[in-house]
Amino acid sequence: MQERRNEDRREPEIVYSHAVKAGKRIYYLDVKKARNEDLYLCITESKRKAAGEDEAPQFEKHKVFLYKEDFAHFMEGLEDVISYIKGQLGDIEERQAFEPEHAEEKVEEVAQEEEKPRRGLFSRFTKG
After folding, report:
1. What is the per-residue pLDDT for 2?
2. Would you call 102 helix, strand, or coil by DSSP?
3. Residues 6+ apart with CB under 8 A from 86
4. Which residues make Cβ contacts (< 8 Å) with residue 25, sequence separation at least 6?
5. What is the DSSP letter of 32?
6. Which domains, and CATH codes, for the chain?
7. Which residue of 33, 40, 91, 94 is surrounded by the most CB atoms within 10 Å?
8. What Å distances lie between residue 115 and 105, 109, 118, 124, CA to CA?
9. What residues have CB less than 8 Å from 63, skipping those under 6 apart?
10. Which residues is 16 bridged to in the sheet?
11. What is the pTM of this model?
């Protein structure tokens, strides 16, 4: 009896997966197989949470399950809201892929910016 309960609780099998890296987030698109052999889509957003220097990195995850009978309606709604956003904002610049060869240039730019004195709301209370 205990084996059957544990079997019911096991995670559904992932039969296909695709990861989409988008800045600080990763979206996992996993096709899973239900106990009745049916397939469905599980969309997981994973975002790294700020952690202290000595702490192991932690991730915040959110999941959405999308079933085949809802695919057409979901795609229709997604296309509608994307079209609306593009209509409001015009062309949307796609996120650039991380290119390690340009990473050193970015580090140098940030270092130069940090050398400049900062002025802000609390600048009169801090030295610098």
Report:
1. 57
2. helix
3. 92
4. 45, 46, 47
5. E
6. 7-116 (3.10.450.700)
7. 40
8. 16, 10, 9, 18
9. 42, 43, 44, 45
10. 31
11. 0.60
